[in-house]
Specification:
alpha/beta; 5 strands; about 30% helix
Length: about 130
């Protein structure tokens, strides 16, 4: 069995999500306008999402992106148990997110964090 983890990203509002492997919502708040039965997933990892304070500070402002990533990394480093499930996963994992910005959101930052912290992890496109 391989120890390799491939991390896919998918916006929860897109039609027919191409989810691969275990699928987790990685948002602190439930996506607006969706019922729970509309989201096919294996779990909701809300404790893995940025803190409420960080999320509010960032407010999806592209100018704050790099500082957001630095602060979110510090939060993840401070709580390794929060991302243990993903750290110990092998194969494919899909992270679901709700942000409109596909390039600068917490799932993108989380995938980068996992790539940096776990050998044998690769990114896969949306």
């Amino acid at each position: 069995m391989t120890n390799r983890l491939v991390v896919h990203l998918h916006r929860v509002y897109d039609d027919d999500p191409p989810t691969v492997g275990a699928t987790y919502l990685v948002e602190r708040l439930w996506p607006r306008g969706l019922r729970r039965d509309q989201v096919a997933m294996d779990g909701w990892l809300k404790d893995l999402a940025p803190s409420t304070e960080l999320r509010r500070w960032f407010a999806h402002d592209p100018a704050k992106w790099h500082e957001f990533c630095r602060r979110y990394t510090a939060e993840l480093d401070a709580d390794p148990d929060a991302w243990r499930l993903l750290r110990d996963s092998t194969g494919d994992v899909t992270l679901l997110y709700s942000a409109r910005d596909r390039e600068r959101n917490s799932a993108v930052a989380l995938r980068a964090y996992l790539l940096d912290r776990r050998a044998g992890t690769t990114a896969a496109g949306d």
